[in-house]
What we know:
single chain, globular, 6-stranded mixed β-sheet, alpha/beta
Amino acid sequence: MPAQEIDVLIRGAGPVGCALALALRHSPFTVGILGRNERKPAFRPLALSYTSRLILERLGAWQGLDVTPIDTIRVSQQHGFGRMVMEAADAGVPALGYVTEYAELLNRLHKDCAAFFVDEEATARCIVHAEGSAAEAHEKRFAQDAVVGLVRTDPASTMTAFERFTPEGPLALLPLKARYAMIWSCRPERALTLAGCPEQTFLQELSVAAGCRPGRPIEVEGRSLHPLVRRMRPARIGARAVYIGNAAQTLHPVAGQGLNLGLRDAWDLSSVFLESRDPGDARTLQRYAATRRLDTQATIRLTDALAGAFIGSDRLLRGARGIALSALDVLPAPRRFFARRMIYGSSALP
C-alpha cells in the first residue's frame, strides 16, 4: 500500500496491531500498518486466554493456528505446603488457555494483514501506537529477570500447565507440542547464570525448582534472558493518537496476561471506532480510554501482586501463602472467580 492519507495508521506490526487492522477490515475506514519486520523472532511462548481465542476466531485468524490447549493448571510453592488445581470445568470453558509460539501467531496474522502494510509514514486521522514504549512511561524494574526456553521432559507434557512459586520468583511450565515452554523468573544474577550454564547443570537446577510433577527435565533449547520491567503510559490517548498493547503497558509475565490484555485493547478500540464517524475525534478516544480503564488497572494490579506475593523464604509468609492456596483449592466459588478473571478480564468482576 503506498503512502497516502488514511483514516487509521497503526504503528507496530505485532499481534495487537494486526488484530486491530483485521477488526476494522470491513469498516468504512482505510487502515495502514507501519513497522513490519521481516526478521524471524526468537523463541517466545505465548499463553492465549479463551477470550483471546474468541477474538482471533472473530477475526478469522484462529483456524489452523498451531496451539496446545491447557485443561489443567497446577499451582504450588517451593519449600512450602499448599497447592491449587484449576480445571477448565471450573470456569465453564473448553480450555483454560492455549499455548503457541509468538512467531506462529505473527506469521498467521501477517498473512491475513498483507493488504494493510505500508512502507512509509502516512497522514492519518488517528494514529494507533501498538508497539514500543514512550519516554514518559512510568517504569517499575522488578527484582527479577526471566529465563525463557523450551524443555523436554520424561514423561512428555500433556495439557497440564505448572505455576511454581519459588522464593526468587514464579516458574511457569506451559505445555507446547509435547514439551514445556518455560518462563523462569529469578534474581538477575541467578538468571544470568542459568541462561549461560551447561545444559546438565541447568536441568538439575530446574528439576529442583519445579519438583517432580512435571516430569524429569532431559533437554532444553532456546534459552534466552529477558529483563522484567513493568511500563505504564500515564495517558492512553493524545491528540488524534491512542496507545494500545505494549505501547500502553507491559506487564510481568506471571499468569501470561500481557498479550491477552493487548488483544482486548484492540478489540475494544475497534468497537469504539465502529461507532464513530471520525476515529481520531477526542470524544471517541476518551470513550475508548474510559472503556479500558477498569480492565487495565485490575490486570496490572493482579500481575504485580502475583509477581511479589510469593517472593521470600520467611516461614510465616510461606505458611500464609500455603493457607491461601489451600483455601482456593477447596473453595469452588473463589477458584472459579479467579479462573474467569484470568480468562475474561474485568468482565469477570461482580
